[in-house]
Design goal:
With 334 residues, this protein is α/β, with parallel strands linked by helices. The chain contains nine helices and eleven strands. Helix 3 (113-126) packs antiparallel against helix 4 (152-161) and helix 5 runs parallel beside helix 6 (210-219).
Amino acid sequence: MFEGVDFLDKQFFWLLLLIPIAIVWYVIKHNKQTAELKISSIKGFQATPSILPKFRHLLFVLRMLALAALITALARPRSVDVSTKTKTTRGIDIVMAIDVSASMLAKDLKPNRLEALKEVAAEFIQGRPNDRIGLVEYAGESYTKTPITSDKAIVLRSLKSIEYNTIIEGGTAIGMGLATAVNRLKDSKAISKVIILLTDGVNNSGFIDPKIASELAVEFGIKTYTIGIGTNGMALSPVRMLSNGQFQYGLVQVEIDEVLLQQIADDTGGKYFRATDNEKLSAIYDEINKLEKTEVEEFKFYNYQELFRPLVFLAGILLLLEVLLRITIFRSFV
């Protein structure tokens, strides 16, 4: 009823209906007690005017206010201080395996595949406050960018720093990327372990077969969501690095081993997605976010403070004031 105040016995508020009944009764009684006398002149009765009779109804007002205070006190008003504490009952460890081969600089997603991925992945990470997340980079070989951690600031900084470089061997080693991600999760104590594997090509390098890496994921109970990124048909992609370190771009046929990615997802209990533009990539991460829900238990603690005592005290003061006024100032008018 009032902000921060709870009433334990709200049914007593029905008694407030007595107040308008009492007011009607008081008005009727007052009218019956008022006699009228018709005379030709009142000059002989005139005296120094007094304003006290006009305020005699104050006694009734004080009584009604006291009654309202007592009824409110009967309703047991209490201030409520609510504190909450959350506990993650089912944490999820997630490793994002990101393809950083030169083809990820293709411009069919804006500004390119890699930057579009980083933007969407950052939103995904920020939306998983109760999970631990790690990052794996791979091209022709793979390595751990960030071990699984609950420190989202570290993960986001690492994600932001991901870019194409010539240090990693060229190519697309899907098996290597998946195996490294499995290695990061195999000793995890989390109830649910998930890999999000993203690539824009076919497995053409590395010494670990993707099917073997997939079997390892199954063995350690790791679910894998695979994402093929790239438009259908031709895409403006890097074709040659120039002497100044920049790429020359040309139209290249997009080739994604969707059969392999679908098989990995099916074997591990995950799902395969195809991201042909920025909007679909964002929608894919939204769907994964919904599919992998972290169970959080919330505890609420209520601290009550009884507030009826001041109301009872107020009612007593009002009744005492009424009695004092009745036997003193208004003694001649009641």
